[in-house]
Amino acid sequence: MRQLIRGMQPGAGKMARDLRADAFRGIALWFILIDHIPGNRLGGLTLRNVALSDATEAFVLLAGYAAGLAYGATLDRHGWAFAAAALLRRLGTLYVAHIFLFVVFTAQVGYSAAALESSAYLDEMHLDVFGEQPYLALLQALLLRFQPAFLDILPLYIVLMLMLVPALPLLRWPWLLMGLSVAGYVVVRLFGLNLPNWVDGGWFFNPLAWQVLFFTGCLLGYTPWREGRRGPAPAVPFHPALIGAAILALLLGLVIVLIGDYGEQWLAELPQPLAELLTTIDKTGLHPFRLISVLALAYLVGHAVPRDANWLRSRLAAPFVLMGQHGLPVFCVGIFLAFLGRLALEMDDRWPMQVAVNLAGLAALISIGIIGAWYRLRERGESAHSATNPAAVGLRAPAASSTTAR
């Protein structure tokens, strides 16, 4: 583990990672697993219980931050064409991962429904149409227009990354990009625009609205070149008034969450317009209250946790950092495990099973992060050896050429 902790930073000559983004993305992935297991009592301790935002908002914001950090640097070093090609390559990986996860998840739910002689799983996961029209459903899944439950986050991420391709040059003009993004968000909210969904009209996570959160993360992550060298990372300045406003926003969000969970009788006593407002804070179109909530939380955490905090390289933080650095396989495994956790808790939801499900789930996610980090270290070590060994370079040249072609 100590070697993996040392390897969390990139090799010499490469841009330093922001371990804060990795650590909190790992926590968000863990929360997504917890929240996707019905009946999981640990779900009462995740972000969604104390704020209007949840792990999904945190994941999208951090994904934008990482994209701005990585592809913004590629843009400055190699130009738009190369950066766009790198983005499209990543998009291909995300798309293949989504289709693979779709096939595995559909088989998992379908087998469970057949074995237990219950169609409830198919109905709840919105997979009933797959049994009725399998060929058409598969085609719509390939077009990202059929998204069963739990399988709607990766399509959102894919479309957001696709939006970033033409928007990459605008990272150098942050006010223009932010203005266009906010204007698009307002138009989408006012006119109810959404991408079409084959089953129920629109995407559960509307990319046309969620892009404002993603591009906010991109602009926070992008570090421009100034006078021939990379300047400081952009940040919203520390100010007591902003700190107070962020705390107030989170407290108001907590009150709204508590009213929604425990205060139905209070809603009846509120004026009709206010009651309607509090009961229509939607997630699909990223309601402004949810957007403010996640941005306020990010502002406070960003200033409370410095980029060079020692605990980010500690043994305690390392599992979450590694999970965040290998988010795609960790997410896919988490979706698969969530349904297994549900089956286990439906058989026995007492405390021993609760503990076993959550410990096994977290251990599996950490294992994926560790395996990914180990493989990356081995790959980096082999590359370093090849770079200092001309004979090795010559022997490995055909394989390297093949890899590049792929």
TrEMBL record:
Keyword annotations of the record: Membrane, Transmembrane, Transmembrane helix
Nucleotidyltransferase is among the record's keywords: no
Provenance organism: Belnapia rosea
Taxonomy, superkingdom: Bacteria
The UniProt record lists the keyword Transmembrane: yes
Pfam entry (one): OpgC_C
Spans through the membrane: 21-38, 58-75, 95-116, 149-168, 175-196, 208-225, 237-260, 287-305, 326-345, 351-375
Protein name: OpgC protein
